[in-house]
Each structure stands twice: as C-alpha cells, then as structure tokens.
C-alpha cells in the first residue's frame, strides 16, 4: 500500500540563512505510517499550489515567532525573532491546502500560524502580557520528553476523542499562545491558567493545532502517538 506523503515546514535559522528540521517530527510521522517530506521555504505561488496538490498532508512545525504585523499588531517588547521567508511560505501555502481540503497538523508555532492564517491573534509574550497569579511554566525547566502541565480537553472535540480522556499531561516550550481564535476554529484544550493549548476546525477533514510538542512524547505516550496516527490516517 502506498504511504501518504506529508510535507513539513522547516525552521529558518536567520543568523546563517539555513533551514533546520527536528528529526523527531520525521520519526513520529514514519512510525505512524507516512513518508515525511521536508518542504522548501523558497517557493513561489505556483510551486506552493503544486505542493498542496501533490502532497497528502501538512505538518506546520515549531519555531520562533510570527511577525506581529501579520496579525495586525505592533511588535511588543518581548516578541522574539521572526523569519519573513518562513511566515510568507506558511501563510501562502495554507489557503491552497484548505482549497484542497487536505489534512493539516500544527505544532507549537504551527498552532499559532494556523490561527493567524484564519484571522486570529496571539499573545506575543504570555508572561508579560497575562500576568497570572500563579504562573504555569510554559517554558518548562526540565527535559522535553517529560510533561510539565496539564490541559483540559473540550468534550466533543476530535482531540478529546483521539486522547480518550479529559485531562492530558503535556510538555510546554512556548512564550506565545493563541489569543483570539480565527474564523471557524474552536478551542479543544486549555491550560490551568486558561490559555488555549489546542484548536481545531469542526467539519474539516483534519485541521488540528496543539501548543505542546507531541514529537517529544509519542514514544512514551499513547495519546501523543494516536495524534500522529490519526493525522496520518486522514492523509
Ligand atoms: Mn503550555
């Protein structure tokens, strides 16, 4: 049987104008039954359209911040580095993916890109902007394969069905988060400090974003592996 080809958006190292890919994304997709394909950042509109046509699914990976102009805001003090090339490629590609109704999974930066592409906004810096009374460590102080906080999954969502439980233990390596949801999206998980940690698009074949990093959890967590598995199956 032919395996689905899943395109991954690479990270852009703007210091050296290099592209990078965390191998555990590739391993997780391979273990779930797909052939991962790293996509280029330098692609014109016709090439993006062809990628959307020919690949079977898309993983928007983690990485640095999205330029605040792209969600209608000024750059705030604690916003991090951005890549115009990556922002442009990812936001240019998504409309073609939606047109073809191909499955898409967003991880960390990926959930934020998916939300911004649908007209949503994000917290540019959680800690300085939300000032919770008992801050949750969204940049965890220990290794990535260990979960650090819980999320409450929303009943009736695809993610709740995939996880098969109400509360999930997740890892956390983000200083930004989804703020206002984009058009057609619902929140499928919240952290204990009320941040949106996952979203999805009801009625779409597979459109899921998670703020945590299942690519560091799938080897030890059935729930994290089932997310990749279900994604690959929809492709
Ligand atoms: Mn978190």
Number of strands: 13
Task: Please identify the top-level CATH class.
Answer: Alpha Beta
- Number of continuous helical runs: 7
Which hetero compounds are present in the coordinates?
A: manganese (II) ion
Structural class: alpha/beta
Instruction: Report strand %.
Output: 15-25%
Helix content: 25-40%
Strand order of the largest sheet: 4-1-5-6-13-12-11-8-9
Q: What would the principal axes of the Cα set say about the shape?
A: globular
Based on the coordinates given, report the CATH architecture: 3-Layer(aba) Sandwich
Could you tell me how far the N terminus lies from the C terminus, measured between alpha carbons in angstroms?
Answer: 13 Å
CATH topology: Rossmann fold
Q: What's the name of the CATH homologous superfamily? A: Class I glutamine amidotransferase (GATase) domain
The major β-sheet equals:
9 strands, mixed
Low-confidence stretches: none
Mean pLDDT: 95
- Radius of gyration, whole Å: 16 Å
Number of domains: 1
Query: What is the H-and-E element order?
Result: EEEHEHEHEHEHEHEEEEEH
Explain the overall architecture.
The protein is an alpha/beta fold and 235 residues long. The protein is globular and about 50 Å long. It has helices spanning 23-31, 45-54, 84-100, 109-117, 126-130, 158-163, 222-234; strands spanning 5-9, 11-13, 18-20, 35-38, 57-60, 104-107, 122-123, 149-153, 167-170, 177-178, 186-190, 196-200, 207-210. It has a single domain (5-234), classed as Rossmann fold, CATH 3.40.50. The chain starts with a strand and ends with a helix. The strands form three sheets. A nine-stranded mixed β-sheet has the order 4-1-5-6-13-12-11-8-9, with helices on both faces. Strands 2-3 form a two-stranded antiparallel sheet. The longest helix is centred in the middle third of the chain and has 17 residues, at 84-100. The chain is built from seven helices and 13 strands. Helix 3 links the parallel strand 5 (57-60) and strand 6. It binds manganese (II) ion. Manganese (II) ion binds next to loops. Residues 138, 149, 172, 174, 191, 197, 211 line the site of manganese (II) ion (MN). Keywords: Hydrolase. This is Amidotransferase.
